[in-house]
Design a protein that fits this description.
With 309 residues, the protein is mostly helical. It has a domain of 206 residues. Helices cover 54% and strands 1% of the residues. It has a two-stranded antiparallel ribbon with strand order 1-2. Helix 3 packs across helix 4, helix 3 packs across helix 11 and helix 10 packs antiparallel against helix 11. The chain binds zinc ion (ZN) (2 copies). The site of one zinc ion has 5 residues, from helix 13.
């Protein structure tokens, strides 16, 4: 029996209907837009929003993208579960759904089977339209067999909405207990600490799919002449904790780093380095192959500088 036929088939996991997805998005964005009008900004609320945005952005870029989609580092099974729960707060479905759609994207980039190609489907579809599409509603587990074999990760993937709402409830509880200071009510904390940063994170990550694959818009550059339309966008990279170095990423996606040059700020990579130094994760794939460095016009590493590639 060949390896292909002996591989376990996992099929699809149904998590919610497409109408549930649509209603969730409408509520999320309506609440986010209303936030500064219902509760005018104060410094404690702005700091809360920034901290919450940072957690959600690392969740999607560091955990859903670099770990579950590209396996850029290793961790123990309990840590893997905790990371999945943290990342489920990002409001962009569960880890296996995100990774399966993203692997489809890399495998079929800029072809009709690429869910998020502006070249094929237009900017609006690549930004948000595909999320509302019946075709990508369920999780294709056969694209992520390496993680679909963990029942606890399947559970997180199925119940991500429950986990996300539990996180929102926790923020409300903290505010009620006075954790954010006497001026921050539970309602204000919910709006500034949950709805607004979650909606902003969905938008900035969607921009990697749309303008990160749209080379005709100014404000970016292509370090590599890849066959796809991926672009490095510095501003977007700041907002997405490194996700905006998308041309680098399409050239060498297995890396734990997306910013290849020292000046390409990659917050996710810095956090992963810290987590590796603390022993929380291991085997960080940080070394770029020499041909990738040379092709990108980057200086070669000193001889003997051996870290895992
Ligand atoms: Zn891409
Ligand atoms: Zn990727």
């Amino acid at each position: 029996m060949s390896a292909a036929t002996s591989r376990t088939q996992y099929g699809k996991q149904v998590t919610e209907s497409i109408n549930q997805t649509r209603v969730r998005y409408v509520i999320l964005f309506a609440a986010a837009i209303a936030t500064p009008f219902v509760y005018p900004p104060t410094w404690p609320l702005v700091w809360l929003a920034l901290a919450s945005y940072a957690l959600r952005m690392f969740g999607v870029e560091g955990i859903y993208h670099r770990y579950f989609s590209h396996r850029a580092f290793k961790c123990s099974r309990p840590v893997q579960f905790i990371l999945a729960v943290i990342a489920s707060q990002c409001g962009q479905h569960g880890p296996l759904w995100w990774a399966s759609v993203h692997r489809h994207h890399h495998q079929n980039v800029e072809t009709p089977d690429d869910p998020i190609s502006p070249r094929q489907h237009g900017l609006f579809h690549s930004h948000v339209g595909w999320v509302w599409c019946e075709r990508y509603k369920d999780t294709d587990l056969d694209v992520v067999p390496d993680f679909a074999r963990y029942p606890e990760i399947l559970w997180v993937n199925k119940h991500y909405t429950l986990l996300m709402l539990s996180g929102a409830f926790f923020i409300w509880l903290l505010a009620q207990a006075g954790a954010f200071g006497p001026t921050v009510s539970g309602g204000a904390a919910l709006m500034w600490g949950f709805f607004l940063p979650t909606a902003l994170g969905v938008q900035t990550v969607s921009m990697v799919n749309s303008v990160g694959h749209f080379r005709f818009m100014p404000g970016g550059y292509r370090r590599y002449d890849t066959d796809d339309d991926s672009v490095n966008r510095p501003l977007l990279a700041l907002l997405t904790f490194g996700g905006g170095w998308h041309n680098n990423h399409h050239r060498y996606g297995a890396s734990a780093r997306a910013g290849f040059a020292w000046y390409e700020i990659d917050v996710t990579f810095y956090i992963l380095k810290l987590m590796a130094a603390l022993g929380i994760i291991s085997d960080l794939r940080e070394r770029l192959p020499d041909d990738v460095r040379e092709e990108g016009g980057l200086s070669p590493l000193p001889a003997g500088d051996k870290v895992r590639s």
